[in-house]
Each structure stands twice: as structure tokens, then as C-alpha cells.
């Protein structure tokens, strides 16, 4: 086994200044390439914080986050941003599509940010794979929730990120749609050999992962 | 309701910038309206109230329509048994630097006991006996920058007078910029022995006066004086009013755009409130109450700002009024509670009306709307049919073309500008689309993102483009007008140099003397008499060059000249012809000291010297009818080879009090007066420009708040800070760019309507339409710069924020 | 209440009151009073001073004396209607010379400021009517020559041997004929009336102490025929009051026994009687006797308090042993108070014998220097 794709050690994160809340406390996590891990926990247990720290959108109070050998804490903010554009794919609970851009343009964003517009054919490939090829020229506001999340998955994968971070990907979807999206998510991540860290409190979502961890009192534990 | 208000209050705590902008927007609009209203009042009411504050009551005035009163009339009336208290007044204009003062010479002993200026003790003695003793109000003393018992150096008809301030009277605004002297001293100093301007008394003595007044004199009451002052300044006031209403409209756009935006921000809250059982009516009432509080507070601040503004800018209005209409208005504004209340109520009502659409939209929010994404929704207020802007433009244009009065042209301009306001965002967004269709770089993407907010940004784009257009349009009109006046005056002034005297008069004998001088090739001369309504009658003695200098608007030069020279016909200036509705071929009757005289109208010529109009007739006929041999000025045409210095020294010997003014000096003086007249227009244009800046900043702040989540997403996806700042800057700059692009045609429209319709109807003269480019050259880069500068702060702020909290917050 | 609400309300109140303050009506200007002392004393180098007796001649000396700084023509009188109702009047023309002028080229140029006071005391309603006018001595607006003394349309014209007085104010008017009952008397030393330690603190002073008066008085719209007795004082000079003198109490009394009495009681600023007080007793046959400060004693019996809080002595006890007089003078009514440019009291009085209480005459009292402290 080579270097782990994601290595988190002794991670600490507190919020608030007066009587701070210790959200993450000496948290440790390791993901190897192609591994899919689900983190479950109740609301407010720090799942999203963990994800933001892994994406370099937040900085820990102590501890270390390494992605593909990059020590995020050593990177300056612009480098972290470049790193994120290059290595991370993000799927949000409420999609966060840019309403003013078409589906194609939304998926294209990571390619543009990485200066890889020459790989545009991947947009079509992924769209076909995710069953949204007919929707490419539409604006997000015309799409259903399931379609939106599929667009978001395509956007998260288009630049072949080393690590896919998913925050409650079915949280805004009804049961039936959620099942469809999960099946697709499962297939695509498997086929592309994606390393996935997903936070969720949906058992069905967790079920598709190789490992399921519980986040309690700021630490992870195996069931 | 209490709970609802609490929720509003917290919302504004979170978004103080929005609150502030809404307040500033309405305050700025109300300030301009208030300020202009206060300045207008000064032009009507305070113009000749000076003597009223001397007489201490509502007064009636005895004047001689033929000229100054003979002072013996006063003696005759005052010693008649049963005579009321009469105040003899001699009024003259004094110049102090570039400021005009009114010299009010009275008999201090005839002043009413309650009069503000009844001097006491030794001051009375000094006033009565010293040749240069004067009294001013305390505020005037401060305005002139003098200490008590200072010496006031003024000029009267070119002569320098040193007046000693022997006393001050307590501050009454009516006496601002007035210098009070004793009649004897004033007659002595100004060389006007035997003359009075008028005699004033309380209006309750009207009957006694009618019984005892000799034939040929007139009684003018305060109401008539106010009316004639109002008529004189009508054009000026109309200009000011139009500007102020436009400013208010721009201010309302600001409050609309802020409130509409606030509603979007609170859709979720309102949806939830509806879900827990708050009725539609209550939500509406809440929003209306919020508007009333916001607009009410803003308007209150606007009243205060407007009052300060009027005080600060009043001189810009007073000065041209003093120069053009010879009326020294009081230097202080006189606000009334009525005016304040009217403006305040109007502002609040208009704010409510302008957010009507927002209220309607709030009504449509279904209970429990909890969707996390904020969808673009069309505010009802702007859901207007496609043909409405066109209809507004066409009906406005029709109104302007088919009517003759000033109010309809203003209404027409308003309709057209409303049409423009509606068109501006739609066309602007179409323009943006052109830029964003192609290309995959940062800018097209940024513009595309901007366009999805077009409905929300529409009011801001309208306000911004209208305000910019207004600033530029007024600027273009003023510059175009200036060019026209320059052209006119350069053409009209045909003599090499003009002779006037500061003391005493020139008369026919002088004309004959000068004609014999070898240095002089030929002469012209003129004599002007000011009529009651502010118009002039001029007796001209013209030579062929002077005849050629007239620019004819209508009438035939070939036949006009002989008819005028024969004394049977007169020339009218354009304002006179327009005011009286006369054309060449019509008859005009003039009241002269020798009785009414009737003339043919021979021709109409261009003139910008007097908006009340001017009737020109041939000198000999004028002298016959008015029995007046005097000349105000004599134009000298020098023999080839004669130097000006040569003539100057000779004139100095022959006319010690003589002044020579060259052609170029006349032109400069004319343009200087012109520039002073339009300073207020520039000031208002700049104010409107400032409101435009507020509209822009408010739009940009709203944009930043509304797009926060999108920006955070982009950052999460890996857009670097600089890239995001680039997106924000591109968006703000392009917003400013479309506004300014739309402003260009609008400003031309405003310029054209002001020049071709408003000026002729307000002042009576027509202007040739020219297209000065300077205002556009200023506003285009300025707006772009403002767009960039106003984007810089939000860009920096948005970019430096960590995306995480924004993404987390829903 | 929340702090922010309080702050907003305070701001609203401040702005509102600032705006309200902006709309305040202009303050009425403060009007100053002329000070009699200023008019009557002060520098007079530019003018002649009265320093000793000089012969007077008439009618020349009825006219103005422009070489002197101030001068007046002063009529007072007690009148009665046909029903026996009491009226009193005062008509005074004052001339105040101005400092020498600069030779202005104007018909309005003047050397003097003229002031006229017209008053009527209505004993029926106890109302005091007053009117004041000013004019310059130019343009024919005011002046005094041998035949006519006038200010605008108020005038006194000599219609030998009588004078005709015509003066009309807004709410009252006088039209009287005044015929001298006895010859003119010179006050002081042959018309030289000394009032202070400096021989120049003096005036030229003559009187006609009894003029039969008849004519019409108008009060509002009511016209009354009246008859009675008047008194004329004529005085001119350049610096009457000496330093340290505060004012005077002047009595002009016509006794039923035919004697006329003038008393001028000068007061020092410390409130004491001045040694320069003087008087004149005129016998029915026209002979007169000068009275000095030792010749009489005047004591205030009652003071009247005006609205400003000043106290005017309206009731006196006067003893003149050498004339056998011990009298009490009483204002017919208290409020005969002049309140225009000058503040003084001038009104009709009744004369009673101190012992018997019997009415023995009528007169006029002038009080000056009480309302200016």
C-alpha cells in the first residue's frame, strides 16, 4: 500500500471564543486510494466541519490534514485553493449549482479552474454516464432535485479529483430519488476508482461505503 | 406585530449597510427636493420683503410707471392733513466683489416705531449727517466678513464708495445683503438728487392714497409685487423644480431596490411566519410599517440635509437673480413647518407607492416556503407589458410636440424618462448578453452570473442610468446654451469699444461731439428703459454694421430696417414675441410718457439678455416719445489705424467718469453672468450624480449579499481569491457600464428636450441644438471608475472570507 | 425600551426640534429708548450755550434757534366738556440739532431732528392716548418760524392774538384755539434759567401761563366740544442738565384765585433735591416772582407703580410759605405714562388745599428720570 490519499492526525477544532465548543477532538482518519468511507453522526457532531477541514476550506486548531502527501496546514491560502481545485471534488447537500450558468457550464467550472478545457469531452462522457446528457444546455433552476444532484456529481468528478468529499448528498432528496442518486453514485465512484469521504446520517448512503465510522464527541470510532 | 418588528430589527442589525443605504437614498432625494423648494421660496417671497421689515407691516407701494418718483410728492403727501406714516425709499444696486447688494436709502425718521432698523442715539445722527454712514443687519455684516464699525467698500455704477457701518440692526433675514442709508447721503453719493424709487406705507391706507394721489402714479400691493417677482423668476424656478423631482425619483428607485432586495432575503422568514399562522394582511402591514419607518426616518434626515443644502447653495440662486432681474433676495431661507410636513408626507407616500410591487410580491409568498435556494422572482412592480415603455416614450413626445406651455413639457419629459427607466435594464441586459455569449474566460462567466440577477438589478440600473443621464443631459444643455450665447454675443457686439459713464449721463450732445472726433469712424448708441414687468424698451441709433449684427429669427431684413428707421415699426426679441404671441406684421402698443403709441412689428431677433423681452425702436422716435435724451452707452467704431490706448487717453480727458469696454470684455462679462446663472444647475447635476453613486453602491452591496453563496461555491470549487475578486469587479464594472451606455442616449434626449422645448417655454428663447461631448467624456469614465471602485471593497471582502461558513449557512 | 430604539428616538427628536427651530418666526428687534439725559446734556461744543440773560424779542423768539442744541414748544392744558367731564392734553414739538453735516447734495440734508408728542388724558375712561412722530428739518417736513410751528400735518399757527393747534393721530385728534390771558413771562433771570453749577447749565425759558382754550377733541369716532385753560412753555439751550442730575419734577398750576405757579424740582442721581431747583409765581396782574430751592418744599405723598415696576410720584404735598400756599396735588388718574421713544409721565392734576381739602385749582405734572433706571 502506498501513501494514503487522506491522512488526518490529531485534528482539533473549536468554535466560538467565549466558552468554545470543542467540535473535533484529536481526530484521526486514514483513507487509502479507492477506499470509500462514510462518517455518520448526529446533527452538530462536526461532520461538515471535518469535511471542510479535509477540503482545506477551514483550518484546524491543531493536528494535521494530508491529502495525497500535501500537508494542508503547510500551504498558504492561495495554494490551498489551487490544491482544492486540482485534487478535491465536492458534492453538497443542497447542490450549490451556479444558477446563472447552464448545466454544461456548471460541470465545466473545475476544468476551467484547472486550465483543462481541452478535456471538455469528459463533460459529455460523464453526462451520458449520469443520464443528464439531455439537460446540458438547461439552467439549474429548471431541474428536479435528483437531476441537480447528478449535475453536482458530474461537476465533482469531471477533473478526476484524488478525493471526493460528499456532504449528505441525498439530504435534500425524497426517498425514491435518493435511492436512484445513491445507486448512480455507487456505480460511478466504483467505476472511476474514486476515493470517497462521505458524511451522512442516512444508513442507505452509508451502506455503499467500504467502511462506516461514527463521529462522537469529536472522535471517530468504528461502530 | 411586536415580534414581527423584532425580526425586522434583527435583520437590519445583520445588514446595517442595507439599512444605511435605504436611509441615505431616501434622504438624498428628499434633501434635494427640500433644498430646491426652500430656494424657490426665497425667489418668490423674500425678494422684496426688505422694505416690509422696515415698515413693519403688509405694505402698499407708490411708484411712477414712467421712472423714479419726484421727491416733492413725498413732501406733498406727508404734510397733507390726515396723512398716514409714509416711508420714502430710494433703491440702488451696489456691487461688493462679485456679489450684488441693495442700497436701501430711507428717511430713518419716517420709519415705523416697530421697524427693525429704527436707529437710536448717535447712529441716527451719523446717518442723518454723514455722507457715508450706513446700517446693515448683523447677519449681513457676518456675510460680508466685516467687524462692527467696519468700512464697506462697494462700487456703484463703476464708482467706488466707502461706506462706514455706524450701527447694526438685529438679524432679520429680509435685510440680508441690504445696506441701509439715509436718503440725503444716498442721493448725494449716487448723484440721484430729487429722486425716490417708491414710497411705501401700510396697506390699510389704500383708500386715503387713492383719494390724494396725483394722476399717473400707481399703487402696487405686496401680492402684486410677489406675483411679478414670481413671474420674473418663473423659468428659473421651473428648472429647479424639475431637477428636484428627478432627484426624488432617483432616490425612490434606491429605496425600491433596497426594499425589494430585503424581501428576497427574507422570503424564507416570511414563508415561515405565514406557515405558523401570520396572516397576509399582517405581513403586508409589517412591510408597510417598515417602509414608513425607513422612509420617515430617511425623509427626516433629508429635510435637515436639504435645509443645510439650501443655505449652502442659496447664493448660487440669489446671484443670478440679482444680476438678471435686479432683485436682491434675502440670504437666508425661511423654512415653514407646512413645507416640511408636505415634503415628508409626500416622500413617505411615494416610498409606499414605490414598494407597492414588493408588497404584492410578499403577498404571494406561500406559507412554509422553505426551499433553500433563493430563486429569482420577478417583482410585480416591474412585470410590465413590453409595449409600456414605448407607449410612455411616444405619449411623452406627443405631449411635448403638441402643447405650448411649460408644465406639459415637464410632464412629457417625465413620461419619456419613465419609459427610459423601464427600457434601461432590458436593453442593458441584452447588451451584456452579447458579451457573455462567447468565451469561457473569467469575464464572460462573471457577466453571465450577473445577468441572472437582472430583475433584481433592474431598479438600480434604471436609477443609475437616469441619474447619469440627468447629470450629463443638463451639462450638455448648459454647454450648448453657452456656446449659443457666445456665438450670439460675439456677433452682436460690432463696435470696437463701448463708452459708458459711471456718474452723470451721456446724451445726444455727447454723441454729436464724439462723431466729430477724427479717431472715430462711426457710432451707435442706445438707451434702455425698464418696464414694470421686467421687459425693456430700447432706443437704438444704429449704423450699417450694427444692423448687420442682428440675427433675425423671423421677418425680412430688407423691409424691416427702413420701417424701423421710419419710426413706424419696432423690433422684438424672441422672448418678447413669444410672450406676447406676436409675429412680424402684428401691431404692438407701448405705454409711453407721451401716451400709448402703436407700432408694426417689423421683425423678431435673437436675444439672450433679458427673458422678459425687449422692444427696440429707432432712437429719434424713442426720444420723442420718452422725452429722454440720455444714452446708456455709445459704441465707437475706430478709424483704421487708431490705437485703443490713444483713444483711451483722449476719452479720459473728455469724460473723467467714462469707462471704455472692449468687445472682448463685453463678451467675457456676458459669459461670466451666464456661468454664474448656471452654477446652480451644475450643483444640482452633481448632487444627482451623487445619488447615482448611492444607487450604484446599494445595488452592488445587494449583489454581494445575494451572490454570497455562489461566490462561496466557486471558492469551494477552487476559484482563487484573485479570481473571485475579478468576478466581483467584472460584475460591478459591467453594471456601471451598461448604466452609462444607456445613459448616453437618455442624456441626449434630456438635452434635446431641455434645449428645444424647456428653454423656449421657460425663457422664451430658442436654442440651436449642438452636441457638446464634454459631459459624456466626464460621466463615462467616471461611472466606470465608480463601478470599479465601488466593486473593490465588496470584492476584497467577499474574496477574503472563508467559504465554509457561507456554505454551511442555509 | 431597547437602547437602539432610544437612540433612534433621540435622533428623531433632535432632528425634529432642529427643523422646528429653523421655522421659528424672526425675533422682534429690540427697540431702544431715547434717553432724555442724552438728548439734553452731553457735548455741545458745536453749539452756542446759554450763559446769562439776554434780551428777547417777539415774535422773533417764537421761531427756532438753530444755534442751540435743543429746543421745545410745549403746550399742556386742562379741558372740560359741556357736561363738565375732565380731559387733559399735551402737544410738544422738540428740536434736536444734529452735529454739523457734510454739505450733502440733497434736499433731505438736515441740521435737526424733530420730534412731536401728542397726548390726551380722558378723565372719563381714565385712558391715556399718545402719539409720537419724528421728522427731519428739511423738505418742509418740520420746523418753527414766527407764525407756525409744525411737524408734517401737526401744526400750531399764530392767528394773532391766538394760536390754532391742529393735530390728528390714529385714534384721537385735537383742534384747539388758544388765547393768552396774560402776558408772556420770562422765567429765571429775565429768561436765563440756570439749572446747575456751571453757568452754561442753563436755558432760555419763557412761558405763557394761562391761555383760554376752546375747540374740539376727537376720541375714536366721538367728537367733543371742550373749553379750558392751557399753558405754554418755550425753552432752548445746549446743555441744560448738569452732571449728577437725574431728572426733574415739573408742576404747572393754575389756581382758582388767579395765580399761576410753576415749580421745577431738579433731582440729583442720589435721589436728593438739587439746590438748583427753581420756580415762578405769577400774580393775576401778570407780575411774577422767581422762586429758588429754599422758597418751597415738595414732598411725595404717594407713588404709582407702572407695569415695568417703576414708581412714579403722582401725589405731592407742597409748601410755599412766602405765597401762603400749603397744597396737595393729585393726579386725576394714575396712568398718564408716556411710553414711546421716551419714558416719562405727563398728566393732569388736581390741586387741593392741604388744610381744608377744598379744590383750589388744576394743573399739569411732568415727571422725568423715573422710568430709565
UniProtKB/TrEMBL annotation, chain B:
Q: Which residues form the ABC3 transporter permease C-terminal domain?
A: 242-359, 683-803
Identify one Gene Ontology CC term for this UniProt entry. Answer: plasma membrane
Q: Where, by residue number, does the polypeptide cross the bilayer? A: 20-39, 242-264, 285-317, 337-359, 380-401, 413-436, 457-481, 680-703, 724-753, 773-796
Recorded hits in InterPro entries, A to Z, give: ABC3_permease_C, MacB_PCD, Membrane_comp_ABC_pdt
List where in the cell it is found: Cell membrane
This protein's membrane topology, according to the annotation, is: Multi-pass membrane protein
One matching Pfam family, short form? MacB_PCD
UniProt cross-references to PANTHER family, sorted A to Z: BLL1001 PROTEIN, MEMBRANE COMPONENT OF PREDICTED ABC SUPERFAMILY METABOLITE UPTAKE TRANSPORTER
Annotated protein name in UniProt: ABC transporter permease
